[in-house]
Specification:
Structural class: mainly alpha
Number of helices: 5
Order of helices and strands: HHHHH
Helix content: over 70%
Oligomer: single chain
């Protein structure tokens, strides 16, 4: 539905304007989470390029550590895909207020910076003696931050 159709319907159907606005928030929320998942997929590609070198050199500890990190990234991607949307539907009695919606949006936008940091950490990982401590720390902060989304919506 385009904006002119939504405008007409909001004049004809009481409450439709807020519904259309909520639907736009829902679409924006889903698009942002999809973007975050795609960005994490790129992080996994950086990690995979490192892991290929570990396999070639039979660096078993590095292979194990990189696989652990990859699994944690995939788990976060799954959580992002299935996260509660940052609004309630038109027919629900428990509405999410505008302040919460703004908090969720700000939080989700801040996650992009954490993914940038994760990519930077991965690219800085030495290939001869890899240490994923910085990447794991950044990923932990990213997971913690994303977890706050549920806390905000549950308030």
């Amino acid at each position: 539905m385009n904006s002119s159709e939504a405008s007409i319907l909001s004049k004809v159907i009481p409450g439709f304007g807020s519904y259309a606005s909520e639907q736009k928030r829902r679409d924006d929320d889903l698009a942002l989470r999809r973007y975050l998942v795609e960005r994490l997929q790129e992080s996994k590609k950086i990690l995979q390029s490192l892991a290929v070198g570990f396999v070639d050199k039979a660096m078993f500890d590095a292979i194990r550590d990189s696989e652990n990190l990859r699994q944690q990234i995939e788990l976060l991607q799954s959580k992002m895909r299935s996260a509660t949307e940052g609004y309630s539907s038109w027919f629900e009695s428990n509405k999410v207020d505008e302040k919460k919606l703004t908090e969720v949006l700000d939080l989700d936008n801040s996650l992009v910076g954490f993914i940038d940091k994760l990519d930077s950490d991965l690219k800085a990982t030495p290939k001869d003696q890899p240490d994923f401590a910085a990447s794991l720390s950044t990923l932990d902060r990213l997971k913690e931050r994303f977890g706050r989304r549920g806390e905000i919506l549950a308030k």
